Amino acid sequence: AQxxxxxxxxxxxxxxxxxxxxxxxxxxxxxxxxxxxQSPGQGLQLLLKYFSGDxxxxxxxxxxxxxxxxxxxxxxxxxxxxxxxxxxxxxxVGAIGGYQKVTFGTGTKLQxxx
Amino acid sequence: xxxxxQSPTHLIKTRGQHVTLRCSPISGHKSVSWYQQVLGQGPxxxxxxxxxxxxxxxxxxxxxxxxxxxxxxxxxxxxxLLLGDSALYLCASSSARQxxxxxxxxxxxxxx
Lengths: 114, 112
What we know:
By secondary structure, chain A is mostly beta strands. Chain A contains no helices and twelve strands. In chain A, a hairpin with a 6-residue loop joins β5 (32-38) and β6 (45-50). The radius of gyration of chain A is 14 Å and the shape is globular. The termini of chain B are far apart.
């Protein structure tokens, strides 16, 4: 069964500092990997996705993520955080080639301080 | 293009009642999935429909059912509501050729 672990429930960073959110997945084959962001009371917005190819993926809002098969990780990074980045971030894994469910992690809540 | 739309935005029901939630996918998308997000947790998969057929089902009781219409819109029905059904219900659509799911704003259900 596929699963996702986001080990950090809550992270606080200063505005302008760099950010890395951790994500580890479990899946039997090459997965689809996603990062979504959710602002309070809102739905989920896709930040970026990895299907295949280049393991460094660029997304919207200046975010990037790196797929590391050997570590079963797909960490999200941003070089300089803005106050508007405060939100909850979800890593997710899905199956390739089928109409399968997407499994989400429990989320990491990001707080940005001035 | 319009994104995924869901109605209603908020809903209050009492235990034992029935509820119907509605979702319209992005134009051209033929797959709709439903997720339940309890406060403080990640979304949990309930159903996926493609071309009006159920393609996947999560670990939810039979009180939960869904259907997809010829125009690819979808309904999620929940019978005999329990307090624990209080959650944000998210709908996501995707095209047949890519797996990326795009989410709607959700319907927040409160069961009293």
